[in-house]
Amino acid sequence: MKPRPHFRRLAVAVVVVASALAVPGLPAAASAATQAATHSLSSTAAGAASTACAISRPHSGTILYAGISGGLGRLTIENRPGQDGVVVLVRGRSKAIGVYVRARSRTTVGNVKDGTYTIYFTTGSRFSVCKGRFTRGATYWRFNDRLRFVTTPQGYTIWTVTLYAVSGGNAPATQINPSDFPAP
Questions:
Q1: Alpha-carbon span 116 to 148, nearest angstrom
Q2: What distance in Å separates the CA atoms of residue 43 and residue 99, rounded to the nearest whole number?
Q3: What pLDDT band is residue 55 in, cutting at 50, 70 and 90?
Q4: What residue segments make up the domains of the chain, in order of their start?
Q5: Mean pLDDT of 87-111
Q6: pLDDT band at 130 (very low <50, low <70, confident <90, very high)
Q7: Which of 18, 117, 156, 173 lies at 20 to 30 Å from 147 by C-alpha?
């Protein structure tokens, strides 16, 4: 059987999760500052910024886009050695969250609002922040199954996805056309 990308769901009481998954330095504040800095470039600085964008390599966990947030759900992303990745959550037809994950690292995204999301990801090298895409060796994927985040009085949903094949994995993914990828 062909190994598949993998995800699993945990429903955990809020008290246990708050103490067990306290991740120091979640990048929410830093990513807001990054987005503000990106959007405040003047037209004269934009030419210089586009050159810098082609060689940018954000830190793992950098939020590239946060259009729908404000929930308690969490998504943990594990990446494989060799290539950086970008994961984009889409709810309906709206991009919700985009996050950068460096090779050989793991990051947790918080503030995922309740709902059902399609998960897209791309891997490659030489990421362009301006284009929201890798400029070398990029492949684009969509998980076939959608992830549902739910908050109840007893707890909230935590999903873990891997961006690499896992023997016995339960999350088939389909390679997609680059134009179908919702770049953050």
A1: 4
A2: 26
A3: low
A4: 7-180
A5: 96
A6: confident
A7: 18
Give the count of beta carbons closer than 10 Å to the beta carbon of residue 143: 20
Q: How far apart are CA 61 and CA 121, in angstroms?
A: 14
7-20 mean pLDDT = 35
CATH class of the region 7-180? mainly beta
**Burial grade of 163 (CB within 10 A; 0-12, 13-18, 19 or more):** buried
Residue 6 CB partners (closer than 8 Å, separation 6+):
160, 161, 162, 166, 168, 169, 170, 171
**Highest mean pLDDT range out of 27-36, 77-86, 146-155, 157-166?**
146-155
3-state secondary structure (DSSP) of residue 69: coil
Q: Of 7, 5, 12, give the one whose Cα is nearest residue 157.
A: 12
The residues, any chain, with a CB within 8 Å of residue 110's CB and separated by 6 or more, are 23, 26, 28, 72, 73, 74
E strands, the chain, in order: 7-13, 63-66, 73-78, 84-91, 94-101, 106-112, 115-128, 133-143, 147-149, 151-152, 155-162, 173-175
- Tell me, what's the pLDDT at 51? 52
Nearest to 71 by CA among 85, 88, 91: 91
Residues 151-171: what's their mean pLDDT? 89
CB 121 within 8 A of CB 90: no
Joined together, the tokens standing for residue 132 give: 């929201």
